Amino acid sequence: MSQKAPWRRSRRLKGMGYAAPVAVFVALFFVAPLLLVGQMSVRDWPLLRGDQGSNFPDNYTAIAGNPLFWPAVGFTLKYTAIVVVALLALSLLMALIVQESRPGTGFYRTVYFLPATLGLASASLLFWGFYSPSIGPVNTILTGLGLIDEPISFTGSPGAALTSTVVLIVWKFAGFFMLILLVGLQAIPPEVYEAARMDGANRRQVFTRITLPLLRPSLGLVLILSVTGSLLAFDQFFILTKGGPDNSTVTVVQLIYREAFQRLDLGTAAAMSAVVLLVLLVLNIGQFRLLRRDRDG
Amino acid sequence: MTTPHPRTGRGRTATALAAIGVALTLVAAGCGDGDDAGAQDVVLEGVDDGAEITMWTRAATQDQATALVDAYNASHKNQVKLTVIPTDDYQARIGAAAGSQDLPDLFALDVVFTPNFTSAGLYLDITDRIAALPFKDSLAPSHLKVGTFEDRRYTVPHILDLSVLFYNKDLYREAGLDPEKPPATLAEFAEQARAVDGLGGGVDGTFFGGNCGGCLVFTWWPTLWAGGTQVMNAEGTESMLASPEAKQVYDIYRGLVADGITAPGTKDEAGPTWTGVFPEGKVGIMPMPSTTLGLMPEGLDVGVAPIPGLTGGSSTFVGGDSIGIAANSEVANQAWHFLSWTLSDEAQIEVVAKNKDVLARTDLAENKYTAEDPRAVLINRLAASGQTPYSMKFGETFNDPQGPWLPLIRAAVFGDPAGVDELNAAITAALSG
User: Fold this and answer.
1) Of A118, B26, B317, B331, which is most buried by a Cβ count within 10 Å?
2) How many domains does chain A have?
3) In this predicted model, what pLDDT tens digit does every residue of A161-179 receive, in sequence order?
């Protein structure tokens, strides 16, 4: 019998009906802008005058010729490496501390998570205020306590600017990632730990042979989120350092913003966006493959 | 009986195709041009019929804009709804609104960005309306010039902001300087700053925004203009910022930095707080916007002087905002009613002059308010002798921290000055690109 039974067709229609709102949402907020960016990237499209016609492949070849581009790529990668390592380590440590229900654990869980409730732009403005040489309280407090003699220039040198921004990001996101790892930790059955202890494993062995492997999916999620977020870093640098001092903290997304809204050229900005999207796609596919292999392997 | 495999086939493909279909429709719809505003008949004197007029201004000039809007709203049927936008984001926000055809009825623009937006056709042609004004010949000339394109006029002067020297007369007296004798050359400026710095006790000679490109074009270029040196060619496509005179200016500031005459935070100041330092009363002398005069604290004895040249003379950067009506505004006549009112005697004298700000009209420079304060008279007179630079690529070259101007002055003043010629070539490349 090759005819479909009518009830199967209506089930399929019903299924499509349930999926339709999400499909519209995805179409509206993901597919449509994606196609528009693709279209913009192959056309001469000044922000103020609109579409001026095709100019492929000029927008793409102009990317490599931008003297700020390769340094920005290098800086974005360096920043990503530092932040991912710092966030993974700190959030894991925090999760291990708060996983057991001792008195005070609830308080610590809340306090660690609180920064996550602040928007990134607001957090960046807050830290800009803290670090400001003219209105910031940090230097005043530290000098008053006698901990330093000279005010610290938090954003005055490339190293200091990077460190200050990493501190902001770790403060903001460690709690959020701690929560993800906490859930992963609590999903590990206690019988596994008991069995390991009965076999004579010490704490280090329990951690490296039991906890970490069973935590891999959560760690993988934290890795993907932090890598993607760091590669797309914009708010914190735009507000805190404005790419300075001396263009030492310029990220790729800052360059995209600059192309679109300072140089008023949407075509080249779209071309850069397309390139960044491709890189992220490759990276994320790679990470998912790695994760799946670990889980099945 | 086989169950339909949930992962294959036509159900998923159909949904995907539907999604793409919806997306393409939306893209096509989104790409359509906005409707042309219904062509209104031009009423030269404007219309006051209770319309709501939307207006954007940047934070740097918000006090002046707010004063004008509040006074107009209190005495007219039309109501202007003002939105203030952070200065650094302003060009980007206007650009984005222009791109999505979402501009307010009235928008003011920093004079250095105006040529770009005027030539893109974003402003309404108001040549005839301006010609009908009784005082059209005494409107600040440099503001009118930046809003002129192919002999048609699109903007009128809105808020004038001139760069002038502010100095603390109390600190001058303490340092043994004559408070009625401000510097007549840049070298004298440096000498007087050093004298005040010698007082010690947390007092510094001067301050400037060492990480702020826009602040420095505003305050350093007048010294060059005073001596007849230009900073760019007339078309704004070639940079002359590595001339011997320019290098002299950089050297003087370099010396002040090296000897610690500048207040702490100079090197890192990116702009948001650069005018907040002098009012605290611990800085001797520094060039600042004239719009800060009305905001000085009561007890501070502040003197004002024109920015001097290298060997004498003086000049000023005639900055501030020019304003025009959006090309597709639906309340153009009402918007023009507000604009022409802001340039009237009543508004210029009772709102602008009363607040110690610079007038947009040269024929009203001597009025009952400016007569009270000789500093205001001095500043108003300067408006006629200053310059407003012109370039289509001004923002991305001089204001943008990732542009080529900031690296040049940071190398010249804080780093290795040998690289200035090469960095100047990068500025030319950006101006002409």
Assistant:
1) B317
2) 1
3) 999 999 999 999 999 999 9
